[in-house]
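Deliverable D4.2, example record:
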Amino acid sequence: MMHGTVSQEVVVAAPLALVWSAYAELDFRDRWFRLPGERSSRSHELDFRVGGEEVTRSTFINMENPEVLELRARFLDLVPEHRITINSTFTLNGNLRIASVATTELESTDDGTRVSYLEQYQCFGLIGDGSGDSERGEREGGTRFMLRGLAIALDQAGQPT
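Output generated by the structure prediction step:
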């Protein structure tokens, strides 16, 4: 078992209200927030309110072996257009891999919106050499990937259709 913290921030060229919508609306959120795996195996539910849940699932083929991934989050605190705090669990084939508490803060800037993400996590069942390096890399890389996906979805939403 190991624990750690991930802290990352990005400034996106989008107004605060649009960034909030990217978190709060399922169709918008599904454009940038999802687990890896075959598109046909994915499901995503979102009840964006304090006490509500977000559940996303998929099946990922790892070296020909299917792995069932599930992320289940509960919204602990929502301050519209300012803060989102969740606790979440991530399971792999029904086994608990990660439990965490994360806060996303939004702040309007001259260039758009600053998105600050802070997650404290606990990993169970370490992989690799057991040092936790794989898990740390997974959390940090996954957070960068998530924030990059958010920026791309916001950029696409700002394009004329």
